[in-house]
């Protein structure tokens, strides 16, 4: 076979190659050596960072607040990893992941002195293409004369030579010195990677190149040199390979938050084995995935192999350099001066300077700031802090109106008669952000035909200078409530009210996840009045209305309370424990101890939700009769009027219900309740329950519907009691 003499030139070098008279002779003489170099570099440049940041800035130059809030939601995994990769760029040294490998293809025979060198790349996540060149040693320094002719003939010559075939009699895998591999398993890996190169097969240069690629892609070898030798039995093709080092150790740098145990688990299967590029890539992917799952700005930036089989892993983690607050106008979205002190917002954040920035933690911080109740919208924008490799966080805040008036209405649970006597109206003024420190002031008035409550409440959600998130609440209240719960059902149909003047201060703080505690002092001045507003000390049955025998009782209470809230949902677990101790600072002040507890547990089975609740309490000492525990009613034992089961020093009330969806916001419910005073009704001063023939214990059962509304669940229920009497109950909100 004969072929034409052609000159071939590639952009990486210029050569001229002359072929001889036959295809096989041309193939063996022209292709004396071929080399392949694989270079992979995952590099992040500052230019890509600048582009990403400019994109972020453009997105938020004119924010639309409903869209801005969406930043609180976690990004998709690929978006988050891209953001992490780009934000890691600000290092003084380039962030790269590089592995350098080379292959050479040498065809040798006794005739001809021309050689061909091929350099190509490998399509791999870690390896990328380099270049391809054909060179002739004695012409490597020639001038570029005849460039145009070479360029025109290049495509045709390469295509023809790549398709020419030569018969191969034997295929072997050897070391770079031509010796047999010590490890037969590596030899088998290389042979298994071959696809085209088989004994007694006719091969082209392209097919040999592709099998070289496959050997390198197996991940076990750092170089591969195909050598063709013309023997009397035919052409022998040997792949001279150099295996990677054995994995003997790992050095991980700059991994401040990445657990060492996780790193060990990622690389554990490779210890003592030949380093495999594919396995190495899987380990890197798992480490990057660890950062991504936790929303952390971290990524593997570089990896290389040191002498002795030591793998060095470099990690880039973006630490928070600075956090700043920027207020935006509610209407224009332009920066403006805010009313809230920046320190008041910053102290709410769990993200601090020096920490590796976490997107999930940032979302929780956004939700925390929104929960303050003074912001309409909040978003966080990360930006690079120069060339430090750190990030600056800008929190955009849109403030709500800080104060205003409101009006509303409701139903009093203490009213047992009259079609409209239980309705109350309310009027209030509230300021959400006193002094720009998130302090609350609320002044409210509730008024009904019998009820009236005037209340002033001041709350500081987080006392300045305290690092335990302690809140302080100061309250002053003047109320008048029905006394029918304990002293109702008088034969002359007269009614009485209990007037209370109360002032107190309470401190609350979380002390464990989902647990909070409250401690306070409360002073109360309380007494009973008749329908004309005159003070009275006894009811119709001559039962005392005060413990001191005077027209009023005075008490100084020390209060301790602990609450476990679970997830906070309606069906979640809840537990509350409360203890009040009367302090007899003055001889006439009452001294008693009152303990109460409440527990609730919800269980979901299919579409149905089961809710079980239990409450109870006990009082020891001298206390006012109207402070006795009341049993019966909408929030106690349904099927009875308010307080109709009994009143005592002790009580236990249990309830179980099953709710199920009906349609949209409407739910159906089936329930049963039971309550008892545990025989303590007669120990209340004057035995008001015994005088009114209250049973002291009872149960009820029934069904109802509930509708979700902006005011909370609206409850309409019908229940029967153990006296075979039925009764409707209407309530707003959840049962106590």
Provide a descriptive summary of the structure in words.
By secondary structure, this protein is of the alpha+beta class. 18% of the residues lie in helices and 41% in strands. The chain is built from 13 helices and 35 strands. Strand 8 (221-231) and strand 9 form a beta hairpin. The longest helix has 17 residues, at 147-163. It is elongated. The relative contact order is 0.06. Belongs to the OEP80 (TC 1.B.33.2) family. It is found in: Plastid, Chloroplast outer membrane. Residues 1-22 are annotated as: Disordered.
Shape: elongated
- Mind describing the biggest β-sheet? 17 strands, antiparallel
| Low-confidence residue ranges | 1-154
**Compute the gyration radius: what is it?**
42 Å
Category by helix and strand content: alpha+beta
SS elements, strand count: 35
Provide mean pLDDT, rounded.
79
Distance between the termini: 99 Å
Number of helices: 13
Beta content comes to 35-45%
Percent range for helical residues?
A: 10-25%
Name the features.
17-stranded antiparallel sheet; disordered N terminus; 35 strands; 736 residues; elongated; seven-stranded mixed sheet; alpha+beta
Task: Provide a short characterization of the protein structure.
It is found in: Plastid, Chloroplast outer membrane. The chain is an alpha+beta fold and 736 residues long.
């Amino acid at each position: 076979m004969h072929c034409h003499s052609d000159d071939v030139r590639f952009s990486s070098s210029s050569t001229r190659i002359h072929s001889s008279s036959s295809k096989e002779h041309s193939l063996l003489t022209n292709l004396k050596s071929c080399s392949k170099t694989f270079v992979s570099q995952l590099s992040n440049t500052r230019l890509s960072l600048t582009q990403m940041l400019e994109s972020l800035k453009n997105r938020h130059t004119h924010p639309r607040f409903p869209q801005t809030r969406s930043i609180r939601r976690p990004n998709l995994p690929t978006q988050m990893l891209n953001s992490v990769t780009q934000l890691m760029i600000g290092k003084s040294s380039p962030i790269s992941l590089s592995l350098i490998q080379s292959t050479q293809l040498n065809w040798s025979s006794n005739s001809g002195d021309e050689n061909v060198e091929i350099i190509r790349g490998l399509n791999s996540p870690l390896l990328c293409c380099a270049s391809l060149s054909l060179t002739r040693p004695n012409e490597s320094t020639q001038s570029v004369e005849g460039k145009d002719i070479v360029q025109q003939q290049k495509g045709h010559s390469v295509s023809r030579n790549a398709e020419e075939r030569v018969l191969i009699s034997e295929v072997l895998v050897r070391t770079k010195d031509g010796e047999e591999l010590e490890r037969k398993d590596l030899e088998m890996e290389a042979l298994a990677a071959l696809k085209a190169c088989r004994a007694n097969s006719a091969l082209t240069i392209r097919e040999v190149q592709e099998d070289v690629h496959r050997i390198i892609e197996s991940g076990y070898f750092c170089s591969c040199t195909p050598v063709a030798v013309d023997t009397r039995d035919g052409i022998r093709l040997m792949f001279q390979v150099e295996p990677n080092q054995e994995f003997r150790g790992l050095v991980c740098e700059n991994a401040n938050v990445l657990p060492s145990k996780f790193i060990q688990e990622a690389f554990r299967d490779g210890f003592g084995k030949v380093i495999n590029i594919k396995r190495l890539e899987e380990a890197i992917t798992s480490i990057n995935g660890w950062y991504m799952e936790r929303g952390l700005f971290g990524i593997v930036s570089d990896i290389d192999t040191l002498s002795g089989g030591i793998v060095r892993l470099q990690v880039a983690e973006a630490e928070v350099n600075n956090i700043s607050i920027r207020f935006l106008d509610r209407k224009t979205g332009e920066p403006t001066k805010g009313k809230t002190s920046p320190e008041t917002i910053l102290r709410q954040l769990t993200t601090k300077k020096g920490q590796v920035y976490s997107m999930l933690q940032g979302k929780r911080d956004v939700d925390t700031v929104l929960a303050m109740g003074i912001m309409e919208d909040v978003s966080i924008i990360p930006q690079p802090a120069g060339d430090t490799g750190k990030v600056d966080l800008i929190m955009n805040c849109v403030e709500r109106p800080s104060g205003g008036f409101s009006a509303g209405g409701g139903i009093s649970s203490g009213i047992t008669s009259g079609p409209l006597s239980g309705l109350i109206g309310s009027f209030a003024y509230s300021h959400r952000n006193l002094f720009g420190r998130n302090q609350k002031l609320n002044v409210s008035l509730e008024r009904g035909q019998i009820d009236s409550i005037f209340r002033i409440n001041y709350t500081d959600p987080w006392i300045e200078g305290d690092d335990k998130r302690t809140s302080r609440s100061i309250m002053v209240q003047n109320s008048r409530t029905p006394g029918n719960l304990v002293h109702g059902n008088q034969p002359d149909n007269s009614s009485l009210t209990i007037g209370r003047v109360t002032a107190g201060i309470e401190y609350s703080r979380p002390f464990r996840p989902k647990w909070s505690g409250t401690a306070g002092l409360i002073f109360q001045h309380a007494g009973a009045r008749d329908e004309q507003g005159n003070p009275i000390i006894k009811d119709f049955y001559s039962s005392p209305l005060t413990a001191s025998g005077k027209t009023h009782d005075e008490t100084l209470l020390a209060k301790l309370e602990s609450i476990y809230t679970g997830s906070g949902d309606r069906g979640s677990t809840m537990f509350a424990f409360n203890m009040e101790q009367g302090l007899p600072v003055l001889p006439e002040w009452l001294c008693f101890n009152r303990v109460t507890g409440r527990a609730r547990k919800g269980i979901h089975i299919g579409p149905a939700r089961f809710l079980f609740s239990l409450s109870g309490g006990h009082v020891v000492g001298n206390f006012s009769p109207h402070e006795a525990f009341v049993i019966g009613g909408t929030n106690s034992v349904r099927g009875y009027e308010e307080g109709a089961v009994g009143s005592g020093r002790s009580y236990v009330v249990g309830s179980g219900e099953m709710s199920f969806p009906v349609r949209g916001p409407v739910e159906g419910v089936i329930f049963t309740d039971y309550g008892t005073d545990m025989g303590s009704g007669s120990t209340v001063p004057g035995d008001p329950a015994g005088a009114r023939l209250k049973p002291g214990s009872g149960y009820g059962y029934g069904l109802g519907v509930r509708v979700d509304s902006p005011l909370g669940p609206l409850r309409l229920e019908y229940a029967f009691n153990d006296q075979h009497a039925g009764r409707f109950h209407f309530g707003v909100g959840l049962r106590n």
